[in-house]
């Protein structure tokens, strides 16, 4: 951590905040504080500079216009690229996920991304709407993922980026994989919010931010979270995990 306080930064809530994505900030703060890790949550509007000294940066989803506007501001600001270079945690959802790649398409135009993940996003012939689930990449040692997707994009991963999961229900990146990660940069199309429905994923981000192994984080009462996961996974025929 940059200090004894775990600093969580929510980027551009005035442009990028759909389908409960702010819940990811709340979940990370709750799971950290429940383990006596003091946190500071910072919301940064698009007319403000992104803090250079923080531990976790979160970028949410948004419509086409706000996404393109946000991308230009984030690139010009430069803080996220600097944070990735310093090994800080960056978590993007939907539009925020696409921004982490090399390029994305919106409104019939291709925009530069941040280049933090080796991938590019185009537009699909149909819109992906509904439940999405998948079996996670073994290297992450996570249970199956579950979330809600609503996007028109399709994302192709390059050789320097691994998928978060193999799709078992829904579309994700391309009907085969969902999400992507490299180092401590991770993105997904999952709303829900993603970290409420996938507490182990939240703890993975916390472990990256604190430098602790997930096994070192004290156990929490996740009965409610697991009930939600079981209901959603059973709904799509993936089985309760």
Architecture blueprint of SSEs:
Elements lengths: L5 E6 L10 H12 L5 E6 L11 E4 L4 H14 L1 H7 L3 E5 L1 H5 L3 E4 L2 E4 L6 E18 L8 E13 L7 E5 L7 E2 L1 E3 L2 E4 L5 H4 L1 H12 L12 H13 L6
Parallel strand pairs: 1-2, 1-3, 3-4, 4-12, 5-7
Antiparallel strand pairs: 5-6, 7-8, 7-9, 9-10, 11-12
- Mass-distribution shape: globular
Number of strands: 12
Mean pLDDT: 94
Major sheet strand order: 2-1-3-4-12-11
Determine the number of helices (DSSP H or I, runs of at least 4 residues).
7
Radius of gyration: 16 Å
Distance between the termini: 31 Å
Ranges with pLDDT <50 over ≥5 residues? none
Strand content: 25-35%
Helix content: 25-40%
Largest sheet: 6 strands, mixed
Which structural class fits the helix and strand makeup?
A: alpha/beta
Succession of helices and strands:
EHEEHHEHEEEEEEEEHHH
Model description:
This protein has 241 residues and is an alpha/beta fold. It contains seven helices and twelve strands. Helices cover 28% and strands 31% of the residues. The strands form two sheets. A six-stranded mixed sheet has the order 2-1-3-4-12-11, with helices on both faces. A hairpin with a 2-residue loop joins strand 11 and strand 12 (185-188). The radius of gyration is 16 Å and the shape is globular. It starts with 5 loop residues before the first strand and ends in a 6-residue tail after the last helix.
